[in-house]
Amino acid sequence: MEKAVDAATTFFMPPLSGDEGTRVSGQVHSWLSLTYLQYARMKAWLQKDKGWGQSQTAKVEPHLLEDGSIHPSVLTRALLDRACGGAFFPGIEVTAIVRDPKLYAEAFRFDHNVLEPGDVTKYMACPWQADFYECKDAWWPAQRPDDVVHEDSFKKIFDEFDEDALAGTFERALGERQPWARGVGDAVPRASGTFLMEQVLPEIKKGETFGEYAERLANTWLGFLAGAASV
């Protein structure tokens, strides 16, 4: 455990927050870490560089069933290969609930005797857009980066490329970054809920018949649509 505490810093990979919230140096469970299987595979890969496993052949699952239909394992892998996965706080595709082995009937198959409809996703962020924006600083760098190399900066550097000054060119290109979410929140605020309820769905006036209310509502909507069309 002492080694794990020492490794809970940005000096080790991956330097990302985990299932227990924002990363904190020295707090092991607040960091995203390799699973036991991933760690075993990394060790095997390291040993392979030293001559281990060169004669082994990986088992390949059949792509089709006997009747010609697609093998279920192909569909499973097609989805999982494109998933973000951890960290699950709350996560992108699903939350930390997927780490509980009691929820599975077999590998990659939930046990319907344990789970009810909605159980897998009920802890997800709602709305997801707000959580996605807040997930900055060491969460999902591929899906939600913090800083990016702007295309204009990248082109400018390589347009000015000098073969004699090759050293440092790529590093300079990666170093000139801009916030990925730049401009978000700078727009004019939307109308409040009160305004929307009063203007778009107004209350019935005293003594007003349903027909009169429907006509007034229709005229209001026509005005909104006409204004939107002229923009």
The overall strand count is 4
Order of helices and strands: HHHEEHEHHEHH
Distance between the termini: 62 Å
The mean pLDDT is 78
Strand content: under 5%
Strand neighbour order, sheet with most strands: 1-2
Global shape: extended
Overall description:
Helix content is 34%, strand content 5%. It contains 8 helices and 4 strands. The strands form 2 sheets. It has a two-stranded antiparallel ribbon. A hairpin with a 2-residue loop joins strand 1 and strand 2 (109-110). Pfam families: LodA_C. It comes from Aromatoleum anaerobium. This is L-lysine epsilon oxidase C-terminal domain-containing protein.
Characteristic terms for this protein:
5% strand, extended, two-stranded antiparallel sheet, 231 residues, two-stranded antiparallel ribbon, mainly alpha
Can you summarize this structure?
The chain is mainly alpha-helical and 231 residues long. The chain is built from eight helices and four strands; from the N terminus they run αααββαβααβαα. This is L-lysine epsilon oxidase C-terminal domain-containing protein.
Question: Would you spell out the secondary-structure blueprint of this structure?
Answer:
Elements: H1 2-7, H2 36-48, H3 72-80, E1 104-106, E2 109-110, H4 128-134, E3 147-149, H5 151-159, H6 169-175, E4 177-179, H7 193-199, H8 210-229
Antiparallel strand pairs: 1-2, 3-4
Helix pairs in contact: 5-6
